[in-house]
């Protein structure tokens, strides 16, 4: 497949030029695959303006000593995009060349003899791949632009890329998405300087199978890694290695993402197995992915998301200019936007996730934690104890959690999500904590030197597996029922008598009423009646209060032993009680 350059001095009348797609669908026959397309002038204006804004920021901090090679490579990409684009305010601006050369030299000097970089991880093939993808794109844009003034830059970049290639073709990874990032970097290097070792390594990784699930997610269930790594990498491999079958994984992921979108452009991440399970993510990262699939499929829903990103004004949209300069078909006029889903109940059983939306009101239910299969707190596992979220416009309840005081076993984490009917779901778990009885005679040792084994909460030289046990049990159930004006969360706790606390964590920026302030750190309690959280015209009411007893949120011994915390950021309101009990938390929404 022939590489395309958007400008390189040839499309000087861009507003009337036609774009011929050279996309990942080269062997496909989608609606746009064999047609010429008009330029989307509004889209180009948005990313050009965003790029112009980035340049002075880069020029002000390009010598930051704390920047990793990945950060330096991205800054280099931002300057080169502006330098080679004839609509940029910095087109062929020689003042960019000095900083560009400094960053190229810095990248050269930071590279190990094996061609790899240290980016947190030492001599890291995957982390180097992130930088190399940007540098391949940068070299391509400068080479197509062809100015003599950038020859020193291209010479350094070519040396960096060629030195890295063999190590990327023999190196390993840490996470599922690393395989695709590494393969995409090899695809780019192979496209510029072909080497059959690179193609063979890509085939080896792809032969493992893409870690996609039937609901459209990837194994990491992470918006961050879908948007920033897996989707763009698969599209790059599909385009450069003629593997159009890879595009379907991206298509299904984007289709799922439609139901994870919040009205304000955030993407729900509750089910994630990565860092974003407790962080905010925004949809702008997906811009060119939604564009490409909208153009190929004629999918108006994808077009609507792309246009909402372009007009939303958030994110580093200037970063997409380089992609469009490399692949001009991405700037074609989109199909007519279609209505996005805004009235649905969508369940994802493979994630233990359900999403409910009624216009500006959305809710998330989650019971898909990994904790019941792997009772560990570790990176790469879903351990988020948030089981419910609710939004009414700008009023955002980021988290509902439950913490019983039961042998320091920590938060309630549902063992699955079960649909009870069109408007109701059930979350439930049973926790059994043992008291250990004397060892049977055949396992006793005179020296008392027993195996170091886990009790479930801690380790000790007690040979726990061979001991008979007496158990204390706590059974917890939460039934979530949708109502016309909100939700009822009915809590049932039985089996043991324990105090518990329900934590409602609201997004900062609104006003709480009807609650008692416990301290100056954002902690409140509702002891009786109804409280409310109000942001502008949007309102979430909650209650009734369930007594004045104060119960702390116990994250469990796995956290407290190491001084860890699970306290979410925001305005936290606590409702307390004692089991056995049945209590209904009424959440009502209103747009004033």
Automatic annotation (TrEMBL):
Signal peptide (UniProt feature, chain positions): 1-26
Keywords from the UniProt entry: Signal
InterPro entries: Chondroitin_lyas (IPR008929)
Stated name of the protein: Heparinase II/III-like protein
